[in-house]
Fold these 2 entries.
Entry 1:
Amino acid sequence: MAVHSERVQTQSPESGKAAVATIETSAARGDGAGTAKKKSARPADGRSIGSRLAPYLLLLPATVATLGLLGWPLLKTVLVSFQNLNARQLVQHLTEWNGFENYTEQLKDEQFWAVTGRSVAFTVLNVFLIMVGGALVGLLLNRLGKKMRLLLSIGLLFAWAMPVVASTTVYTWLFETRFGVVNWLLDSLGWHSMAAYNWTGSQYSTFFVILLLLVWGSIPFVAFNMYAALTTIPKELYEAARMDGAGSVKIFTAVMFPNLKPFFLATTFLEVIWIFKAFTQIYAIKAGGPDGLTRTLPIHAFLEGSGRQHYGTGAAIAVLTILILGVLMAYYFRIILKQEDEL
Amino acid sequence: MRRSLIGRTWPNVVAVVLFVFFAFPVYWMISTAFKPSKDIISKTPVFVPFDATLEHFKTAVNVPKFWTYTANSFIVTVLAVVISLVIATLASFAIARMRFRGRKVFVLVIMAAQMAPWEVMTIAVYLISRDNEMLNSLVPLTAFYMMMVLPFTIWTLRGFIAAVPKELEESAMVDGCTRTQAFVKVIFPLLAPGLMSTSLFGFITAWNEFPLVLIINKTDGQTLPLWLSSFQTAFGNDWGATMAASTLFALPVLILFVFLQRKAVGGLTDGAVKG
């Protein structure tokens, strides 16, 4: 959730007012007495050792936590990926290094490449639908009247707030074979062969359910952000464009899009990262099935590692996944850092 | 500029359709939970549960250990959020207000940590917990959930602290406060909305967490997401009870959202894009 952080700064108008009031009082009092005495407490100049150490002390707990609880598992993943660690070695607490064997094994494995290709295709299609859908819903929010906007926002909030495990369970129920409301709807719309359709019986139909679940759950975030971004575009720009005779398409490409480009880029990459590492939805719908045909990389790593107790293999798949994510994140940061002047 | 009748109507029609698309699954979950079983498995779906029943909720709550799982979920989530708030408040004050060497590196690490690939690190977390003989315990869950929400908490609080004008703090110090007192008395009270929205998102993240608890707590120390995901398997086709369980699980989050929605969504969406 990185994109949202910035706007918080713009957020507290009350505190702004309070500040002005306090400054006035302190100015009226004159700052002769207090400043000299308190100088040591300030980090600015003539800093004492204590105040120079202060930031590091404040960061200490966070640093320790990050190293121990994030850094260590990350390192451990890399270490295990170079080990032959199966059920036997695990029980007997053996450490058997086997170099790059887990990696070469994976890189030669057809299934690994099938899973990787599937993950990429799945992510691309999903993010495309989320971004287009989210942008359109955002545009719609911007165009609607107050009441209808509230209605749609409530619907979006529901989908957004819904816990993932709960929504996954609900989707299994919606798409249930015999009593699911989706099959009933398709049947009563005249598509009778769908009356008892088993959605999780084949690869594409299972992916369809997962895709819909992810798109449904992800659009609200994009739509709200899109709407918020649209409201920051000055009205005069639209008016000027209209005076010049621009139609709605032209207004979108010439006025809205250039203003929204940073938003699009940042959100797209965030979604790519989120979707690429999505686990719960895919696992809870069918655990990568049928026949492992909906396995994506995180699911594959989990099933090989924990499911089959080939921890070394699982870790190697995990490291390869992390490398792909790392490349994506590097791009994301390039975009963010370009926008971020104050860091 | 006047729009034609169709031009004025279609956005509203689309809005209603979209509202149904987004809200229906939530509605369907709640309504199924209240329907008597015969309505759930009727040929034509019953859309409004007129003869509502609490029977499914009773089934869900009477699952052995339901209350243990609920307690586990609450303990782990609340502890994780509270600890991360404490650690994050200290850290975010440093990066929002102080200049020091290594600040930029720290900020970059925090930004990257927000996107940590926890989903594929579960194997390592499992092995670490096992080596410390902490499988099926709440300690690793609390610690790692804390870490999952920490970066976001630091990053968001940093924004809130930066929003408090420096002069406010300085004038408090002029008036004789120490820097710590200035923070506690001046900045901290102004952070309330920030603390609320970050804890909301921390709560949701930890409450929903699934992959990690799936791998490290197979017997004891299970939490509600695990309970819910295994519900279907355990109860076959008792969709009424499954939906009642989902409703119970989703309830705390939906309630929190309704309460904190204004502030949280404000915090989230105010200029999602800067500049």
Entry 2:
Amino acid sequence: MEGTLAYFLIVLPIAFAAIVGFSPAPMAKWIGTIGAFATLAVALLFAWTFPHWTDGLYAPDIDAANWFPAMGVSIALGADSVALLLILMTAFLMPLILIGSFTSITERPKDFFFWFMLLEASMLGAFLARDAVIFFVSYEFTMIPMFFLIANWGGAQRRQAAVKYVLYSFGGGILTLVGLLYIAMKMHAALGSWDFGIASMTAFCSTEMLASEQVWVFILLMAGFAVKIPLVPFHTWLPLVHDQAPTGGSVILAGTLLKLGTFGEFRIAMPMAPIGAVEWNGVLCVLCLIGIVAAALICWVQHDAKKLVAYSSVTHIAFCMLGMFSLNSIGVTGSVMYMISHGLSTGALFLCIGMIYERYHTKDMDELGGLYRTMPIWSFFMVFFTLASLGLPGLNGFVGEFYCLVGAFTAEDTAMTGYPGLMGPWYAIIAGLGLIAAAMYLLMLVGRLVWGPLREPGHHDAHHAHGHAHGQAHAQARDHAHDHAHGAHATTNDRATTLSRDIGAREIGILVPIAILCLVLGLYPEPMLKAIEPSVKNMLAPYPALVERYLKAGTLLESGSEAPPMASASQP
Amino acid sequence: MDPTTAKLTLIAPEMVLCFGAVVVAVLGLTRNASLRRSVPMVAALFLAVSVAACMWSYSTPAAESSGLLLPYLGSFAKPLIACVAILLVMLGGTSVDRRLEAAFESGRVPFEAVRVLRGEFHAFLLLSVAGTMLIASATDLIWLFLALELSSLPSYVMVAVGRHARKAQEAGVKYFFLGAMSSAIFLYGFALLYGATGSLQCTEIAHTLATQAATNGVSTLAIIGAVLAVLGISFKLAAVPMHFYAPDVYEGASGPVTAFLGFMPKAAGILALITVLSLLGWSGHAAVLHGQEVELQGLPAPIAAMLWMMSVLTMTLGNIGALLQRNIKRMLGYSSIAHSGYLMMGLLAGPGAGLNAVLFYLVGYGVMNTVVLAVLCSLERNGEEVETLEDIAGLRNRHPMLAWMLAIAAGSLIGLPPMIGFFGKIYLFTAVLEQGQTALVIIAAVNSAVSVFYYLQLVILPMLAHSNPRSETVTALQSPWPKLAAVIGGVCILGLAVFAQPILEAASGAFGVATVSAAAADEPTAQTTDGMKTVLLDR
């Protein structure tokens, strides 16, 4: 039963993509949305029938169809609770994004919905994969739809952004591939047959491979994930891509695509090369701290609301990774929880800013302000999601953030929690500074956009006398450039024709489900934390012993007891 | 089967092609326009027959009694080469003499047999294909040399006559002189190998060199000979340091000829390198010497080091050179250099997975490269070829199918899943990793990341860019054949990935390795085993 459902989760979006491809253009958005809802229904059914919410096992258990038998590649699909939560989030966000794009996508709507359905299929494929090659194929394939989404429907520099996205992702991804192939090759040398199953590769690599090899394999695997996550200093692609992507693209990028990186870290890099993860832990933690603090400071000086949210995404995800690298159950559980929360709240923030952009064709905070006067409903949601994003207790962001901080705080050698770690209170305190900074820049964001005197760009508003003349001219010039870049883009004001002054029923309908989920996860995170924990414990199983040893010896390299029997045969 | 019959059976496909070349050459001279028009069709037909002949000849026991070191190399390589050649004929068949034929038809020009080139062009194409195929069944160095020459000489002419432009003449002359120089280099290498071993028979050379390696090490003379042979042959692959002609010649030649140059000499070079390197003994390849099984010592260190360096330099220079190009054909020239680097990496990995991966990658590369050029050949601007990146801007608005095919081929050249290029790379990387060459694989990975930058131009411009005044004058050719070639190739790029298994199996069947017995000295019928596995020492 679940086996079929797992296949359906991938096949259904592909099938709908094909239908969209052959349907008349005006129908595309409806078919795409129906497809997304159908996928959501399947995902919910999958979750409903999922038997392993509490024990961290996979369902369906290996149900492999050979695909590339000479190489041991099989189409094996299955999800544990963590993967399933990410699948649910993807399937949940997708229809909302598509509905949100109804009015903003005026050119080639067919292609837009086609690529989005393919993107959904590949993301679900990556979360469902139990075979490293299937994982990698899906993981890399996300690049293709995303490339077209950015390059076709993005802002004025969209092509540059799309190229940057592919260059970074592919450059990192191919090194990840080398890492995976290296493990498979070693396994082939030791066991005599090819096997790309994630479970068997994990079992082999984490136990049989030399410490020195694991250290390098971990770096190779991390190369792709660090770019995708993105960890500072590999984040430089993200602001431009977020800024230039269409709203739907930004939402899915922040909501799910970045989670492919964190998920890869959780499912592939950390379990496969635990020794590497411990050895590099110090470096990675420092990178996370730098990410938290530096990106928060960068947020502070942004004028562009979307870029601000993009940089805030960098600091939040650094929080998430700090929790992951705390190597204890609390921290990693918080990290997974944070993946979901961040997807919801940041995704919603991008949706809110997209709604403003659709009305004013600017995201510049110098040109916009006091919008509560004209858009009270929008302002409510904006403030709500900002609070969720900065981690107000009672909303979803808080739980994950808190767990990550506690994880970092308790990750010291005293083994109080049964999980000795390599961080300690100081790490948590520095990360806490990031929380304060987050409150400052996010409140500054709403402060400037929502409160204060009304500032609107453009000539269509009676209040324009209050605006800065310079800012207006700037905005018009930018609008003009934007229209020019789009070629066929209508020069008439969308707002006058299709969009109401404040957000309408459709847009409220998109934001309400996300808001409800934020509230529910914030007030009652218990079931979700319970679901995440067993999976996390499985992943962390080898860590306490390794960390103990690392703390005693200062390194895990060159420990004689560890040399596997096949070590001598591996180098011809 | 006695050796002569076996040899004749094995070269049946090549004989078909040579006969075809004669038929096509004569057919091209006829006054009857419709017969002349049928020339590409006839050429393709002969290629198809030669595929069937390959199937037949390898179903007989001929390969085993032929005295070849790698008796089944051709069973995979030959049909593949012929199949890609069919695509190449489809791609270019109608473009040769197009304007001359139109002039004949309108009656403006009286028919002159001297001026028509279509028959000649296809005859040369078939001969070159025959030469390439012959390499796979070369039993001695003379044969190898002649086959290499048969494969290259027609291509020099094709470059020069494929297009009525000074550039083509220049490219033809350049290609010819440099090609002749490279032939001299590898011929000298062969001569030295003969001096070092006293034989021209592949099996005997392998035997002697294996004995040398097992006793005092391979003689310096043989090493120098092998170095020269590899260097000379690497001209065919456009590998560093013999790469410098590629961009100029690719740019100067007509589109169909460029497509031909992208695949056929590369296939010839790879097959010839496989043959030459197999003489030197790859690691894991066992030989029976005087009744005792001896593990070959692997490639002599200088040769392995040279291949390593060549591979790294080739892929790096190719990719960096391609970054700077605005002319698509020049860019493909550099990209072809880069892909030679990847292929050489697989050669270094040796028999078994390495060579399987090389052959698999070769199929993939042949199809991808052909699709890109098939798209270019389907287009023209005021009767001129479409070459620059500006010309294909906004292609999608007017020719969506061609734009899609270009994007698919470029994605595959990058190595994006789920296209064939991705699986080629996985297979190649794994095979090389298996030999402990991690650094080489990382260099290749970084290189393929660099290549994203220029290949993406082939996606962005046709799919996303707006038309410019220059690209708006680009029109599609009347002839459906190049378009059909592009579509077939595009489908293969996507489809072969899903059904990659049979190709992989066929490729791994290609390396049944003959054991060189002491008896081989007197009698060239070496014993063979079917398949690599039985011969590979279980390491």
